[in-house]
Automatic annotation (TrEMBL):
Keyword ATP-binding in annotation: yes
Domain PurM-like N-terminal: 27-138
Residues the record lists as binding substrate: H53, D262, F315
UniProt source species: Candidatus Kinetoplastidibacterium kentomonadis
UniProt-listed InterPro entries: PurM-like_C_dom (IPR010918), PurM-like_C_sf (IPR036676), PurM-like_N (IPR016188), PurM-like_N_sf (IPR036921), ThiL-like (IPR006283)
Name by which UniProt lists this protein: Thiamine-monophosphate kinase
Family, as annotated: Belongs to the thiamine-monophosphate kinase family.
Binding site for Mg(2+) 4: D29, S44, D74
Protein task: Catalyzes the ATP-dependent phosphorylation of thiamine-monophosphate (TMP) to form thiamine-pyrophosphate (TPP), the active form of vitamin B1.
Residues involved in Mg(2+) 3 binding: D29, D74, D212
Amino acid sequence: MSEFHIIKKYFSKYFRNKFNKEILGVGDDCAIFSAQENQKIAISTDMLIEKRHFFSNTNPYNIGYKSLAVNLSDLAAVGAHPIGCLLSIGIPTFNKEWLFKFSKGFYDISEKYDCPLIGGDTTKSNKSIIINVTIFGNIPNTKSMKRDNAKIGDEIWVSGVFGEPDIAYRILSGQIHNIDNILENIKISLEMPIPRITLGKELIDHANAAIDISDGLIQDLNHILEASKVGANINYKAIPISNKVIKLPENIKKYAVLNGGDLYELCFTAPLHKHDTIVDIAKQLNIKLSVIGNITSNTTLKINGIEKNYDINGFDHFK
Ligand code: ADP
Ligand code: MG
């Protein structure tokens, strides 16, 4: 099967402008969309490599789903609304079933979040599958939720519950045992994360700084602290842990909660006077939002008052 047949068969659902008349999609030299007045464009890109970001035997539907989910999550972290995405894929062999399932997973989440696939590139790779997604979003001109804007006294909030994806990953990679067959219940959190798009858009008027948790709470919160030149005091007990992992040994849970990656929940900071508004947003969106600590002036990250050396823990590809 040629490159062109693969594109036509698996990635041309929005050939030219089928999805949205305003957008020129797959099938021309460039995808084209209009820049709206009073809006900025947010762009992000993420690469997923077989055996590094996903196991070779992972359901291809879930791989397709996740490869767009993690990019949508980056839009969520700045409060952007999705416009569309590009998918570049390198595959070592033509595998009909794999491509069918992968593209189905990709299109399912793309439709769920109104983020059409408007272009990309398809090529043969040497050994592993390589996936790169680039995403575009809209953001109101006057607003921003960035890593460098946390203010002393802000409350530190997180969405969702912690622990599942890291424990699923460590069971799948043979680092810990599948105690009580827990994997079956938590694998979905690793393979199909929920991008917090609606939450991000709501928070843009209220939060000062935000990040999505991809490399672990400590490491990602630290990106906010360093960029904003502030510190934080975290109350460990206030971090919500998933009921599904609650019975596991404390050391496994603690690692997953503080350092576990692949969570894709938002961590954000907001002034105290926004507390009630944020509680209302949580109710309205039916998303769990919890205050886990405060921003401080001393530029260190403390957990229950004890300074934490974050550097040695969170995920880093080159360590
Ligand atoms: P070019 O030679 O101009 O780079 P290609 O032959 O690579 O064009 O691609 C043809 C069309 O198909 C382009 O519109 C491109 O954006 C789109 N395309 C290629 N691969 C993919 C893919 N994996 N997903 C979505 N669109 C794709
Ligand atoms: Mg090309």
